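Weekly puzzle thread! Below is a chain. First person to post its structure in token form gets bragging rights.
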Amino acid sequence: MIPARRALVLGAVQGPTELLPVSSSAHIVLVPWLAGWEWGSIDPEVRKSFEVALHAGAAAALVVGQRELIAEELRELDLRGVTVLALSFLPAAVVGYGLERRIERHLGGPRATAFGLLVGAAAMIAGDARPQLRGRGEARAADGLALGVAQAAALAPGVSRNGITLAAARWRRFSRDQANLLSRTIALPIIVGATLLKGVRLGRRGVSPDLRRSMTIGVIASFASTLASQRLIELVERDRALWPYAAYRVGLAAVVLTKLRQ
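Winning reply:
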């Protein structure tokens, strides 16, 4: 269903696009489409399950590569931090559980993905224009809810979980380095939750040996490419503006929309 070579390519793409706010989900949709693969004929739930598997591989690499930072965050976790995490998780969990299959059917194509890229780019530019007034340890329940709504919006391909949560944190006037930290901190729970949900659904349906092999290859490639791309995090964290990533997203969307008109 998903040839091993293509699973390897998509796993390699997942790493750098996961670490930069350019939407890994958009690239997983658009790379096969631009390359002329017969991707649209694959069951949408299988495609989404494969994408979630790639996210799981990337998350595992982040746990390994950022283990010291994660350990430090866990040591400092208090009731305030738990509240922020819970509120950042719940909206996306509710929307994902209830509407994920509809999103897969209606928003998984290149046109919808291109518009998702544009929406995410606009949100990043608007959010990054806000002043940097808040720092470490200042996130509260309202901030967690704002990040949770952003993560729910990121279920639409192209919007980008990383990009939209960065935009939400900057809109809440967090500094750029703290916005990045918040974005990464709230990512793991939702990725783990999505992986478990897809794992249960695939277990009920059954997984063919071919799909299991492709998913395994994709996860390994995603893990390796994410681990090898760890330095890209520093590019976003050095108090840098988000507009270059927004510009890239607009350019990619323009390529897609132009191709659709031909």
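Puzzle host: Confirmed. Bonus trivia for everyone else. The mean pLDDT is 86.
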